[in-house]
Design brief:
Layout (H helix, E strand, L loop, with lengths): L14 H7 L14 H5 L1 H9 L5 H5 L2 E2 L3 H11 L7 H8 E2 L16 H12 E2 L16 E2 L10 H13 L3 H18 L19 H12 L3 H5 L1 H11 L12 E3 L2 E4 L2 E4 L13 H11 L3 H13 L23 E2 L1 H20 L3 H22 E2 L4 E2 L2 E2 L4 E2 L9 H4 L5 H15 E2 L2 E2 L14 E3 H13 L3 H22 L5 E3 L19 H14 L2
Antiparallel strand pairs: 1-2, 3-4, 5-6, 6-7, 8-11, 9-10, 11-12, 13-14, 15-16
Helix pairs in contact: 7-21, 8-9, 8-10, 8-21, 9-10, 10-15, 12-15, 13-14, 15-16, 19-20, 19-21, 20-21
Length: 531
């Protein structure tokens, strides 16, 4: 396996914040910074495989009532007793996280806009105090997605911020950007979420887009300069191991893939073990694969880093997750996001008065764009596909990822027109844009539609004046979201955009409500429609 196995440093406070945490009892338990599978070992394995919690994420989020070593010593003593109950042991020595939304009552007589504005306070979390569980404390208040997701999530947050901007909550946008800057400073990158079990992977890199959104909201270009150190650090994380001069032979290291014509990036988790939050499921997938377990775990984790967990984009056989090969694939959307990061750094350098540096970063972006066109653009089909660099072929999975190069204005008007026709032909359904054209039972495939992909598609099309298709998608998504809210009182994580009599399609876990990015995108679309 060519992904480099790297031990990520535990999240440590910076000097100023360390003064407030050194005296806490939490830091006396050195294991608190470990992923829970490492922290609890055989106990964690037993709980996750026992099935006492239907969702593997449940126990991963539990907080211990005693220091780790004390709990492990008690487990070693008690598990041999005839009347030992694993569930009773967990209930005695651990506690579940509180969910403020449990007491929230929906008022369906309100408009959906009023409902979402009420939800911001329900989904808000205060600055974290150091704790004993898996939550990585953040110094400023933030918005969580909702449902089973009681922590901040990286790429979710950008789309949540769109709604916060509409609501005038620039304070919360600032806090969340500052939290992500804090994570870059202390962890070295932005993890999937602020849990210790996410410290081996990131998510689609939207930090540059967040900084741009904040700069636009405050009408202050100096915001880009303020966060320039963090933008460069995030870029260094994604480009770790890249050669200065691309070779003519395939080279991979961590998230870098060097091909003839330039360096592109992939998703690649730094560990090759079952995900703690999907422990039982990952073990079963590996067992069914007939492959080396560590290889399957790496690809499953990398699929989680993509945010599209899971999708036939990453599979050899569209209907079998056991054939997953995420880390062998160059994704269209990831490289469009990194193009935007390079362009944003160039813009920040120019704002700071460093014209020569700005030109160098613009050249990096140009090189990436040329490489993406070479490997991911299909001239014959008129759309973008992911590139399988092991086989040397494009993966012909038609997906909404094709809209990302339009969203970040990487294409010619002629290319945009062809992509727009294909989005309209293959992806626009009764309720909005479908994720892929494949029906596999995976949540990032048909018939599901997701808020972030609606926004990227709509804005990408608008960037090239394909207003009719963009408006069709927006209007259908608004109607579907509003219809489900009227019927259920909920804003959902994802929706079935093909059969409008259903709320949502299948996936790795039950449908979640809340929901941060759905709220954000819908509120933004409604505000534009009402102008």
């Amino acid at each position: 396996m060519l992904c480099c196995s790297l031990i990520i440093a535990a999240c440590a406070p910076d000097k100023q914040e360390k003064q407030t945490t050194d005296s806490t009892q939490t830091l006396a338990d050195a294991k608190v910074q470990l992923s829970p599978d490492e922290r609890y070992g055989e106990l964690f394995d037993s709980v996750q495989l026992s099935g006492i919690f239907p969702d593997s994420k449940t126990f991963a989020d539990y907080t211990p009532k005693l220091p780790t070593d004390s709990i492990l010593a008690l487990y070693a003593t008690e598990r041999g007793k005839a009347d030992f109950s694993l569930k009773t042991f967990v209930d005695t020595y651990f506690e579940a996280p509180l969910n403020p939304a449990d007491n929230f009552q929906t008022d369906r007589s309100q408009s959906v806009e009023a409902h979402i504005n009420r939800l911001w306070d329900v989904l808000a979390r205060p600055a974290d105090a150091p704790g004993k569980g898996t939550l990585i404390p953040l110094p400023y208040p933030y918005i969580v997605p909702g449902g089973r997701f009681g922590e901040i999530y990286y790429w979710d947050s950008y789309f949540t911020m769109l709604g916060l901007q509409t609501s005038g909550r620039i304070d919360l946008i600032t806090n969340m950007v500052d939290n992500f800057a804090h994570l870059i400073n202390t962890v070295g990158f932005i993890p999937n979420g602020n849990r210790t079990y996410y410290l081996s992977r990131s998510q689609p890199p939207f930090f540059a887009a967040m900084v741009q959104l904040l700069a636009d909201a405050k009408q202050d270009e100096q915001i880009l300069v303020k966060y320039l150190p963090q933008l460069e650090k995030e870029y260094a994380f994604w480009m770790d191991g890249a050669h200065e001069t691309p070779s003519q032979e395939l080279y991979t290291h961590r998230r870098v893939v060097e091909l003839a014509g330039g360096v592109l990036n992939r998703y690649c988790d730094d560990r090759a073990t079952p995900r703690p939050e999907g422990y039982r499921e990952d073990i079963h997938t590996a067992q069914a694969s007939g492959r080396e377990a560590a290889e399957v775990y790496r690809h499953l984790r990398s699929g989680a880093e993509s945010g599209w967990d899971y999708s036939s984009r990453w599979f050899d056989d569209a209907n079998k997750i056991s054939t997953i090969r995420t880390a062998d694939i160059i994704p269209v959307d990831l490289n469009a996001l990194l193009y935007n990061l390079e362009r944003t750094i160039a813009r920040a350098k120019r704002t700071a008065g460093s014209e020569n540096d700005a030109k160098q970063w613009e050249q990096k972006a140009k090189t990436r764009k040329n490489a993406l066109m070479r490997y991911c653009w299909s001239e014959s089909e008129g759309m973008f596909f992911d590139y399988d660099f092991r086989s040397g072929k494009q993966k012909r999975v038609i997906s909404a990822a094709m809209a990302f190069p339009l969203f970040f204005q990487m294409v010619t008007p002629e290319q945009a027109g062809r992509v727009a026709k294909n989005i309209s032909k293959y992806l626009v359904k009764a309720g909005g844009v479908v994720t892929t054209t494949n029906r596999t039972g995976q949540q990032w495939d048909a018939p599901n539609g997701w808020a972030p992909l609606q926004w990227v598609s709509i804005q990408g099309l608008r960037n090239y004046r394909h207003e009719a298709v963009a408006d069709t998608i927006a209007n259908r998504w608004i109607r579907l979201n509003t219809k489900v809210f009227r019927a259920t009182g909920k804003m959902l994580e994802k929706y079935d955009v093909e059969n409008l009599s259903l709320e949502s399609g299948g996936g790795e876990y039950p449908v979640q409500d809340g929901f941060g990015w759905t709220n954000g995108v819908l509120l933004k679309l409604l505000s534009e429609k009402n102008k």
